[in-house]
Amino acid sequence: MAMPNSNKDILTTAETAKLFGVSVRTAQLMIEGGSIPSWKTPGGHRRVYRTDVEALIAGSGMDAHAPSALVVVLASADRLPLYEMLSSAMPECTFKAFDDPHAASFAIGSTRPFGVIVDLPAPDPSRHALLSSLVDNPALGHTRILTVGNSAPNGGNRISHVQTSEAAAAALRKAFADTGETAGPPADATFPIALNERQRLRALEHSGLVDTAPEEAFDRLAWLASQTLDAPVALVTLLTQNRQWFKSRVGLDLSETPRDWSFCNHTILQKGIFAVSDLASDPRFEANPAVIASPNFRFYAGAPIRDGNGFALGSLCVIDYKPRVLEDAQERSLLALAGLASDEFRLRSTERQLRDMRRRAEPQDPQARS
Predict the structure, then answer these.
(1) Is the overall model pTM greater than 0.85, yes or no?
(2) Domain total for the chain?
(3) Is residue 187 part of a domain?
(4) CATH no. for residue 143?
(5) Of 175, 342, 363, 365, which has the most beta carbons under 10 Å away?
(6) Strand ranges for the chain from DSSP E
(7) Same domain, 212 and 332
């Protein structure tokens, strides 16, 4: 392999994370674990070759055809709060908002999102240049590109133009309803379902996490949630088509339940905490088998766990046998722990993809076939 001839050919851990579309912590673990070849500088910092990272991405299935629930928004700083409000009303997706075209362009290139919204209240050369680059990028062929405002760019069929941010949100919802090929939940489901539930289930399948063995990292997070929030039950859950499976559990013998028993059906449709102070007095849960009979749950609080493409695959939740209300500090703790669980999910998924790629790339041993 030719040696790098410029600093652009050598990447830091943070730059590697951006190329993979994962957190810096995930990239650090991948590098230290040997999934990405690296070396140390005299100052003790890890460095990797860009060619190695690009080869791994190219062969690992991390492509534009992977399902995504990410939406990148580019808008002026004074209009970003408007899109944050719209994001809170769209549980199907995860928004990443920017007021700088270069930062938005980098995020788009590293994540290949489901959609891109470019706010154009007036003509803006930098935003029009970004749109041109998106239209010309074949890797973004599955990304929906929307512009908002009075200035409609020329992008052919690749760009949809609307007048308002609300119309952009409506267009995204319609696109999310195009649910692909994976089978969804039963038509008579008694729990709420996201518009892109089929893609979420496909993302869950791609994660390879369901029905895997217990892992210390998730067990620690469940234990920490139980201790920090003083809850007798804590769970790391994954929601499949028809069941709720527990990747980790504290204080509960069951390894899974039917999905229509799951309080987490509501959690994965939230941006933050979903909590019910008294399950028995809430019309949504008063007839739930886990409430009216053993184990007679009364309190629930959960936060979504998301993969690298923005899908809520499950939740980190705590449950109690008596009604209660979380304090603000406890809510922040639960959100932080769910964020750590999301990092672990992303790491496991990325490592699985890299292992699969390495297996495909390994030369066949002629003697093994004889």
Answers:
(1) no
(2) 3
(3) no
(4) 3.40.50.2300
(5) 342
(6) 10-11, 39-40, 46-49, 70-74, 94-98, 115-119, 144-148, 159-162, 233-239, 243-250, 256-258, 274-276, 299-306, 312-320
(7) yes
